[in-house]
Amino acid sequence: MTSGSVMAAEMAEQPAVLSRLISQCDDLFAGVRAILPSPPLRVVVLARGSSDHAAIYGRYVLEHATRTPIALAAPSLHTRYGVETDYRGYVAIAASQSGRTPEIVTAFDYMRSNGAIAIAVTNDGDSPLAQSADLALTLGAGPERAIPATKTFTAQLAVFALLAEAMGPVPWSETDWESIPRVVEAVLADPAPAAPVAAAIGDARAAVVLARGFLFSVALEAALKLKETTSLLAWADSTADFRHGPIAVVDSELPVLSLSAAGPCAADVAEITDDISARGGHVLSIADTPGADLPIPPGVPEALATIPATVRAQQLALALARHRGLDPDTPAGLSKITATA
Amino acid sequence: MTSGSVMAAEMAEQPAVLSRLISQCDDLFAGVRAILPSPPLRVVVLARGSSDHAAIYGRYVLEHATRTPIALAAPSLHTRYGVETDYRGYVAIAASQSGRTPEIVTAFDYMRSNGAIAIAVTNDGDSPLAQSADLALTLGAGPERAIPATKTFTAQLAVFALLAEAMGPVPWSETDWESIPRVVEAVLADPAPAAPVAAAIGDARAAVVLARGFLFSVALEAALKLKETTSLLAWADSTADFRHGPIAVVDSELPVLSLSAAGPCAADVAEITDDISARGGHVLSIADTPGADLPIPPGVPEALATIPATVRAQQLALALARHRGLDPDTPAGLSKITATA
Prior knowledge:
The structure is a homodimer. Chain A is an alpha/beta fold. Chain A has helices at about 5-10, 15-25, 25-35, 50-65, 75-80, 100-115, 130, 150-165, 175-190, 195-200, 215-230, 240, 265-280, 300-325, and strands at about 40-45, 70, 90-95, 115-120, 135-140, 205-210, 235-240, 255-260, 280-285, 295. The first copy, chain A, has a 5-stranded parallel sheet, with helices on both faces.
């Protein structure tokens, strides 16, 4: 078998998984709206690892929709420090692909028993997380066998976007949703650009991944995929934070990957690209602009461009693993469920 | 002048700055309590860069005190996406050492005009941030001339801890506060351990910094100090996230720094240290246990041990910069105020 063939096969399922989620959106909207408390909505999001990156995306779209500050939970406050937070009036949304990450299940149960209305976002409707929830939203992505989460991550992005849509105004339309599976298919049908980007990264020890706004969550996920599958120490930062301080690490040797889509944050990414060039660095790009190293089709609203941008990052992780002679399906010593209790 | 002499001089001022803040805590408590809305308290924290690491510490201690979920603001939602969040009933706490980071000032003004009670944490009482606030808490740290923030960062940690104390129960006592300046003085009087740790890191391109709970904020700050002053690409992660996925980057060459203090998260740090050793890696430690590479005095409650742990990280950044022949006072091309508008 080719190295990474399981990961590649699971990546290829993404258009179908997304199509199904989108086709079932009316059920999701009805289910969510039936359990929401009266406004003002107060939302707390709970997750870890890859799911936490989807949750960070969720934090942006949910605040856009609800117009109230969204909190990302710090599970250790409950599981380590015994803080008794009052969750009455809150909707707690927990994301875990397996639905079995022990600390997330514990913290979610805690939130529900302290007053929260509990929504689980998981790929396993029989999991403890789904069983604890007032409403379980399943990804329907089928079993995921490769260690690096791919189809479950983009499905989580879609579910968080749909959750936001159930709660208030969002910066995309139904037509935009309809285009997403086709856009992802187009990206999957064009894997070639990943090879030269992987070759440019070569055997670098470390790299930086930059984005802002909605796409920041994808920068975090891209960095994680690269760490898991290629041992590249990829570190994600917001362009706004990077330019003051961390930019000191840039030199001609350090690979920098940027993510950008037409919208209010594109100028920030363009500006940091110039700053990095001025320091002798070179930026590899995932973007919807002509000439991007890893192009995504134009015309997708920035908030949904997170999905095809993620697929580009998956292709890069796969290509770099192969370039390095590693098998991304089974990175040394990693297991599928985070065991933190 | 010795390289880093300004940074070292500012580090040396920390016991005096902290003493002054602690001696004035009754004024701070009275000022905060006078403007707090009636419970349940709803708090949103706003910051960027180094101040954001203090804000992440604030997020933990404030949730401990208020027993309600604390939100960390995503400024781009207001400054880039124009989201009109309703902040009525919220206390907005913004931290900026200069009080002049444009985007933080803009977002803070936005929060206040949308209903928040606004508290500024800044080193400059005449700054735009302080001027916009309902209550300005000044650090009293005096001018900071070195690019890497040191005394203002530990002062911010202290102010966030005192803010939490003004709002509810905290895991330390007045006696603990009284010991802090002396503990910091003891660490400052013992800079020698930083040199061998710096030598062990040597000319590594990248490194990982790990912690959990209260000390996670210091891991983020330690990583930033190292990036700013030494160009080491230091990347901070929570032990809970690191063990599932990112641990794949570990090998015998990658320096790993851990931060730990007696308390509920010490076992997590001990466990990840074992996991890393099992992969052939080696962990350098900032801890209050015997044999730590960079020891902090025992007996300080974990939540306040963030302050001496930060000072150890500052010493390491300074020592590594000198080891690399760099001047941490003026890293190439960095300026003191984040310019994101």
